C-alpha cells in the first residue's frame, strides 16, 4: 500500500513510529534556573558528529506549563546545558517512569528511585549508575515544521563510562544490553553483536 501522511494513514496507530527502528534512547537530564532537576527519555536521539563529538535529540510535544514545549527543552533554553544518560535494559522500568508528564518542579530521579550524581563539567545531575553519561553544552535549538517540534544539538564536553562496561580497552555494549525504541509500545535490547569490515579495510 501507499499513503501520503498529509491525508492520514487509516490505521489504528501511526505506522511511521514503527518504520525507523530500532532507535537509541537519549535519557536527557537537565536542571532549571531554580535548581530543579528533570529527567526524561527521547527516542528521536542520536550522535551526529565525531570531531568535536556532538549529539541531538528532538522533542515533539508540549506541556501547558512550558510555553509550547516540554521541560527538557525549556530547561536547556535557560541553562544551555544537558546530559545524555545511556539506558540499559536493567533500567527499563525506571526509564518508563520518567516518561510520564509531570509538573515542571517534579524530580523524576526521585520518582524513579534513581541515584543521581553531579556532572563534572556542566551544572546538571546525571544517572549515577548508567553505563555512560554524556555531558553536553548546547550548540543550537532548531524549530522544525509542525507544532512543538524542536531539535536540540549539543557538543559533548564530558564523558563518564561505567568501569564494568570496559573490556580490554573497549566500551562493550554486551555488558549492559542497550535499550532501544521500536514502534507503538514496543522496545528491544541489544543481545547479538557482529562485525563487518568496510570495503578496502584490513
UniProtKB/TrEMBL annotation:
SMART domains (UniProt xref): Flavin_Reduct
GO molecular function, one term: oxidoreductase activity, acting on the CH-NH group of donors, NAD or NADP as acceptor
Transmembrane annotation, as ranges: none
Domain spans labelled Flavin reductase like: 18-173
Pfam families on file: Flavin_Reduct
PANTHER family: BLR2425 PROTEIN, FLAVIN REDUCTASE LIKE DOMAIN-CONTAINING PROTEIN
UniProt name for this protein: Flavin reductase
